[in-house]
Design a protein that fits this description.
219 residues; Dihydrofolate Reductase, subunit A; 6 helices; 13 strands; globular; binds NADP nicotinamide-adenine-dinucleotide phosphate
């Protein structure tokens, strides 16, 4: 499926495509130069989207702060959160508006608490793997977001790749190996043939401090 909103998937991993240790420890795999580049990328996108797994693990702000200073233009910060497990006291909600996409079964009490904390709760159709990404992208398009950068854990990354909506990958890789017991940047895709594997073409590669930063476009 090709979405009208341009979707960028940002991955920050070890050389062997791990984003965290099995224990969940993940800060910071990539270096300061890569993190600065990510803040500039955020500032260049209309929206950024994560999953509730990342909110619960890292409590991120997801604002654009190139050089440590908040950018004049901030992306719309969004979370995929089927059952509204995001804590009302999370850092995301203390720094301006944020959108929480949830399913029909999310508890009304959680919705009330999140809205009281400044969150905008948006109900979308949800299936087995969570809130349906195509419905989220439709909503973003209707809200005039033309570009979205996904910065999430392996579950959301797999979900958007499976949905075929990823136009571009910005991949930052640190010169470390975390091993197969680390958390994969992309969770299971359930592919049965190599021919079914999504393919990308590298369009840029550069050094970013000690890390490498590659840009890949969908073939
Ligand atoms: N290095 C990096 O670049 C980076 C970036 C972000 C996170 N991380 C690490 O990633 C880890 C968390 O990974 P994670 O996979 O648990 O979290 P995640 O991908 O951020 O969030 C996954 C959760 O999102 C919800 N969700 C709702 N709709 C979804 C959909 N369509 N597809 C997939 N998920 C959907 C699901 O919970 P519900 O069913 O409850 O909705 C799901 O369990 C943490 O250790 C964090 O530090 C690393």
């Amino acid at each position: 499926m090709s979405a009208p909103v341009r979707v960028t998937l940002k991955l920050a991993s070890s050389l062997d495509a791990r984003i965290a240790l099995a224990s969940g420890a993940s800060r910071w795999i990539t270096g300061a130069s890569s993190r600065g580049a990510v803040h500039r990328l955020r500032a260049a996108h209309d929206a950024v989207l994560t999953g509730v797994g990342t909110i619960l693990a890292d409590d991120p702000l997801m604002t654009a702060r190139p050089d440590g200073i908040p950018a004049a233009r901030q992306p719309l910060r969004c979370v995929l959160d089927t059952r509204l497990r995001t804590p009302a006291g999370c850092a995301l909600l203390t720094h301006g508006p944020a959108v929480l996409f949830h399913g029909a079964d999310a508890p009304a009490s959680a919705r009330q608490a999140l809205e009281a904390a400044g969150g905008r709760c948006v109900e979308r159709r949800a299936g087995e793997s969570g809130v349906e990404i195509s419905h989220v992208l439709e909503w973003l398009e209707a809200e005039s977001s033309r570009t979205v950068m996904i910065e999430a854990g392996g579950r959301v990354a797999a979900s958007v790749i499976r949905a075929g909506v990823v136009d571009c990958i910005e991949w930052f890789r640190a010169p470390v190996i975390l091993g197969g017991d680390g958390m994969p940047a992309v969770a299971a895709l359930g592919l049965e043939t190599l021919g079914a594997a999504p393919m990308f073409r590298r369009t840029q590669e550069r050094a970013c401090g000690a890390d490498s930063w590659e840009t890949w476009e969908r073939v």
